[in-house]
Design brief:
four-stranded antiparallel sheet, elongated, 161 residues, three-stranded mixed sheet, Immunoglobulin-like, alpha+beta
């Protein structure tokens, strides 16, 4: 099989094994779906699950005739061509604005903060669940989340619970 890209020079991985840069020809030993990944600086990484169907002369019982009664070797050559798309560069101002939104906790409509409790939900440990973690000695609360009854939130002690 021959793999070509526009522009050429992309690193090719077939079934997660590197085989070289495009354009490249490589042997393949079986038909079916092959995972082809193309990587090139400045371009989006392209991953394709490429079907390579079995030709008619390899289907049993026709394969017996093609392999034993035809005097010459039959070669199956596939050419696969792919178009790479330039990588989208996010302007620095837009990236900083998104970071500031995340820093200030701006969430899209309909997405609850991780500490919000559904209306009518019981606060505190439920039956059969572990008790709440006690605050470490001398720990200062890091936040008082809204909707949890004003209970302070303490950082976990080193080593988890």
């Amino acid at each position: 099989m021959t793999i070509r890209t526009n522009p050429p020079g992309a690193q090719v991985y077939v079934d997660d094994y590197p085989i070289g840069t495009t354009p490249i020809s490589a042997n393949f030993t079986y038909y079916g779906k092959r995972k082809i990944r193309l990587v090139k600086d400045g371009y989006e990484t392209l991953t394709v699950l490429q079907p390579i169907p079995t030709p008619w002369y390899e289907i049993p019982p026709l394969d017996f005739v093609s392999e034993n009664l035809i005097p010459r070797e039959i070669r199956d050559h596939r050419t696969l061509s792919y178009q790479l798309t330039p990588q989208m560069v996010v302007p620095m101002e837009q990236l900083k604005a998104r970071a500031e939104q995340l820093r200030h906790g701006v969430r899209p409509a309909g997405v609850a903060a991780p500490w919000q409790v559904a209306p009518g939900a019981a606060l505190g440990p439920a039956a059969g669940t572990p008790e709440m973690i006690a605050a470490p000695a001398g720990a200062e609360p890091i936040a008082t989340p809204p909707g949890v009854g004003g209970q302070p939130v303490y950082p976990l002690p080193p080593g988890g619970r």
